[in-house]
Amino acid sequence: MIGLAFMATWLPAAASRQAEGVDGPFQGLYVAAAFAVAFAAGLALAYVMLFRRRDESARGAPAGRPHPLYLGLWTLLAAGLAVYALVAGFPGFLDQTVPPYGAYPVGVTARNDGFDFTYPGGHVADTLHVAVGKPVQLTMTSEDVIHGLSVPAMRVHQAILPGRQATAWFEATLADTFDLRSNIHGGEGAALRTALVSHQPADFDEWLRRVSDIFTGRTLAEAGELLYNREGCKACHTTDGTRLVGPSFKDVYGFEFPTRDGKTVLVDDAYIKESILTPNVSVVAGYEPVMTPYEGKLGDKEIEAITAWLKTLSSKGGAAEEAEPEAEGDPAAGDGQEDK
Ligand code: HEC
User: Fold this and answer.
1) CA of 235 relative to ligand 1 center, distance in Å
2) Shortest-distance Cα residue to atom 15 of ligand 1
3) pLDDT surpasses 70 at 6
4) CB under 6 Å to ligand 1: residues?
5) Residue 230 C-alpha to ligand 1 middle, in angstroms?
6) What is the pLDDT of residue 305?
């Protein structure tokens, strides 16, 4: 019992469902070990006192063979402890190994300079947010060396190896902020330490909604740039004039281009919208009609944001803007243009 009271102070507060399956066997083994140490030390002490050499002439009796009962007893005790460890620990081990069906998936990327947590909607955060009472499944990989992900309060620890996928899951039972870190030394300068924030489910939804809205805290053009990076445009379009699979986005807005079928198009808001939703309707001369249509994937507001951002990349962005009073959010975009 002293052992238990003592442990309560040095095990971190249990804040996940699987903590029980870890703490139970751990405490059991801890008590057994404490008992064994006390017993062995006590026996040694008692024997030293009882059988000490009392006078100079005393001669000890020669040691005989131990009674077979002793051997049997020790073997049984040790085997019993091993069986206890297996029986007490196995259910918790199984539970931790198999994530429940429908667990909330969060991607984890570990790097020497920190963790990236990617939520199903595409939002990336440097702290891990979860909802109380909802199992969360982490799928983890490392971009450089071996790291680990450890949340003591959740009793989660998993090594993360480069080039491999590691998984772990847990279900928080308390809403609070907990320590999350790598407890594997990742080399010079690697100090991976951040936080796990567990929210009440409604607060979590609210948090996710807020951070997933790319338009909060960003100008329209900044949201456009984020979409360019996130939606894969980057793979085919550069911003510095270099030609990839598609034309560069530098100096596109407000300029005129010949199309494959001999027409000329002016890149304005309407044409950009058409190019994104149905790119193969008019194909720029010199390019193949290979762009994926984004119809159904990007909404009006997203396209507006991309358009605003394309304006900042064009020397005619400001001029075209005047001709197109329809578009909103351009003051920021226009200002950015003038700053450059
Ligand atoms: C698979 C490669 C690929 C991806 C991904 C891609 N594009 Fe394109 N894009 C092209 C090609 C090729 C063209 C030129 C042919 C054409 O007009 O369809 C083009 C043309 C365009 C044009 C017209 C440019 C002009 O000079 O007239 C716009 C605007 C455009 N893309 C926007 C986007 C945006 C925004 C995204 C991301 C949401 C995107 N593209 C993703 C390949 C791609």
Assistant:
1) 10
2) 283
3) no
4) 231-233, 235-237, 245-247, 252, 257, 267, 272, 275-276, 279-280, 283-284, 287-292, 294, 306
5) 14
6) 95
Q: Which two tokens stand for residue 3?
A: 């052992």
Model pLDDT, residue 340 = 34
181 and 192 in contact (C-beta within 8 Å)? yes
Q: For 115-162, how does the pLDDT look when each residue is reduced to its tens digit (9 = 90+)?
A: 999 998 788 899 999 999 999 999 999 998 899 999 999 999 999 999
Residue owning the nearest CA to atom 1 of ligand 1 = 291
Average pLDDT taken over every residue of the chain: 86
CA atoms within 13 A on the CB side of 11: 19
Round to whole Å and give the CA distance between 26 and 32: 10
Which ligand 1 atom minimizes the distance to the CA of 297? Answer: 38
Long-range pairs for 204-211: beta carbons < 8 A, 24 or more residues apart: 204/129, 204/130, 204/131, 204/132, 204/134, 205/131, 207/129, 208/119, 208/121, 208/123, 208/129, 211/123, 211/125
- Distance from residue 306's CA to the centre of ligand 1 (Å): 12
Residue type, 148: G
Give the pLDDT of residue 54.
82
CA 6 to chain centre: 33
Token readout for 88 is: 């007490």
Integer CA distances (angstroms), 209 to 123, 302, 303, 339, in order: 10, 16, 20, 33
For residue 1, name the pLDDT band (cuts at 50, 70, 90). Answer: very low
Structure tokens at 81: 């402890």
